[in-house]
């Protein structure tokens, strides 16, 4: 409702679209920022993709769509579908690779709708000259991740492009799953007063990938947090039926961008507590060195849960009982705010606005 | 059973795998042939992808998978899922573009399982610097094709890669649909005696795309046949319930490769009648000029139906009553053949083996 105090970087309060001017479709060109998951990506999706492909499912605005299915008993739930392109560079990084990332990323998008992921498709676009041994390593890792998660890759396609027209391997995956009846999770459902929970320390995936980039090689022991979160989601939903309103994995654009997306979708604001947001010391050190803010660095094995505040202790306990969320914490709460600001109480007692990612902080991070 | 007469190009009869030596995974590299849909692609899929991702759904070996779904009434049918990568070059060609092709290709893969296509996902991998106006043209065409077919794009993703690491735009699409109970269509089901039907003249898509390639520009009026075939499939299945055993769209690798795939999957041979396989005169002329065999040129709006011979007249009549299959014809029949040869009676009264595509005849045709 009110402009936040103490915010020299406050964006134009009149315009709560994360971007100011419309896309210049006539003369504009794609830049790396359009793929970074921040403001530019949101604008491209809204003004070009949604405008042309418009339908009620796409308009749901979550990381996947919830769909009616003829022949499917509505009392049993709904079908969901989510898709993900993976262009991470380098393809192999500490804690994962393109193959496992593609499986985890899409399973997580399906799970964030409250669904049990069931099947994956995988489309490979491979550059001529790519070593078969490396391709096997990627596909083997994909198979292992799919088996570990119990979500098989049931169909696929393979295309090859000339040398210099691709970059090793790109993988696009689509996942389908079923949301049980009675479960309703969406970025549109955050309400003032709700608790904002985070499953663990942020920034590890982005830093792990960056640490492998040739031009930025530095010594760090950081491993990607890439993981399939569907069993964590199932545990959380079982612990507090009906209490969880929003689930989302803070990938591209990091925690800051994810929370801004949710604030915008739900038409609310949030206040975060900086001290409650965990960052591993080695991630913090690497970010310092690279001039990155961990709030904007991608994660591939973390989730944000927004829930009824009365149920927050139960939800937190269920998270902490799961091996992938031992350090779960409440990091803030939702508040009424027509301006949809995500604010943060800093460690030093001040307040600042945590805005959308506006640049391309980490291109090709997933 | 017997080696075909009059076949100087007969492959090794002892080995009916379409390839002789195993992949050299240790030292081998991807070449354009691995993406062309012929022998090399089949080997890559079998020895690398299937070996690593192995599961019963992927092993079905069709262009998509038929899947059980908890909560879905088996009496209502089964869920199917198919996916397709699209890297066609150039992106705009006579009769279509990357956007419409991505919709048609995936709808067709779903329809070839006998299913009603319901939803599509679409993942875009875009090269930095690509004009927004061209991207809008692609997405607009995709939206129009999806609306015309009644199959919406319900979820998507957008990734951007650096200039020189992609080639304009690549689109990967996944489709889901429902196969009605009682319908069972698969490449595994061709039986000796079955009729082999083709919905119309072949080769138009490949020639239309090739005609636009800079280095091979030549004057031709050929338009791609790119079209969504799901209403044709529905009409055929309704006309002769239970009679159709195999449906497939002869895309990459053309009619010849598609029939060899089916022969291999079903463990049968086929005898085709060259005179019955229609080729438009302008497609024929362009193929002559380019040294291409239309049997190996991709189609994006044709289907092969293999059915009970007693029902062939009814199936053919249903096809010809549909605007996309006015020139449907029986082009041959299935026969017992442990060697799984696809043979052709030539116009001159001889016989020859129609083998798998072995090179890369037309790279990036879809």
Automatic annotation (TrEMBL), chains A, B:
Alphabetical list of Pfam families matching this protein: AIRS, AIRS_C
Which GO biological-process labels does this protein carry?
protein maturation
> Could you tell me the superkingdom of the organism this chain comes from?
Bacteria
- Residue ranges of every copy of the PurM-like N-terminal domain listed in the record: 62-179
Q: Which residues form the PurM-like C-terminal domain?
A: 191-343
Region (Disordered) residue ranges read 1-22
Recorded hits in CDD domains, A to Z, give: HypE (cd02197)
So what family is this one in? Belongs to the HypE family.
The protein in question is named Hydrogenase maturation factor
Q: Mind giving the lineage of the organism this protein is from? A: Bacteria, Pseudomonadati, Pseudomonadota, Betaproteobacteria, Burkholderiales
């Amino acid at each position: 409702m009110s402009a936040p105090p103490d915010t020299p970087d406050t964006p134009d309060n009149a315009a709560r679209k994360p971007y100011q001017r419309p896309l210049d479709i006539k003369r504009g060109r794609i830049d790396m920022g359009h793929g970074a998951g921040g403001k530019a990506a949101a604008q491209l999706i809204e003004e070009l993709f949604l405008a042309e492909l418009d339908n009620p499912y796409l308009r749901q605005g979550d990381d996947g769509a919830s769909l009616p299915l003829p022949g499917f008993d509505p009392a049993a739930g709904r079908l969901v579908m989510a898709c993900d392109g993976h262009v991470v560079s380098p393809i192999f990084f500490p804690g994962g690779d393109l193959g496992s990332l593609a499986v985890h990323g899409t399973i997580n998008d399906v799970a964030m709708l409250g669904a049990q992921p069931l099947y994956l498709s995988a489309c490979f676009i491979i550059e001529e000259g790519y070593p078969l041994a490396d391709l096997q390593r990627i596909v083997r890792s994909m198979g292992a991740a799919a088996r570990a998660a119990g979500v098989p890759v049931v169909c696929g396609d393979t295309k090859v492009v000339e040398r210099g027209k691709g970059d090793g391997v790109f993988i696009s995956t689509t996942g389908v799953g079923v949301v049980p009846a009675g479960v309703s999770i969406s970025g549109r459902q955050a309400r003032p007063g709700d608790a904002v929970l985070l499953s663990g320390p942020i920034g590890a995936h982005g830093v792990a990938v960056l640490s492998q980039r040739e031009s930025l090689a530095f010594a760090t022991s950081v491993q990607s947090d890439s993981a399939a979160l569907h069993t964590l989601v199932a545990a959380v939903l079982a612990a507090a039926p009906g209490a969880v309103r929003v689930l989302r994995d803070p990938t591209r654009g990091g925690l800051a961008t994810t929370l801004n997306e949710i604030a915008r979708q739900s038409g609310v604001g949030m206040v975060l507590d900086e001290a409650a947001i965990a960052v591993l010391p080695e991630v913090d050190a690497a970010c310092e060195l690279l001039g990155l803010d961990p709030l904007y660095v991608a994660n591939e094995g973390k989730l944000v849960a927004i829930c009824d505040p009365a149920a927050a202790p139960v939800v937190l306990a269920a998270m902490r009982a799961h091996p992938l969320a031992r350090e779960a914490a409440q990091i803030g709460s939702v508040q009424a705010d027509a301006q949809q600001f995500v604010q943060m109480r800093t460690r030093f007692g001040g307040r600042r606005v945590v805005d959308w990612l506006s640049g391309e902080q980490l291109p090709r991070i997933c």
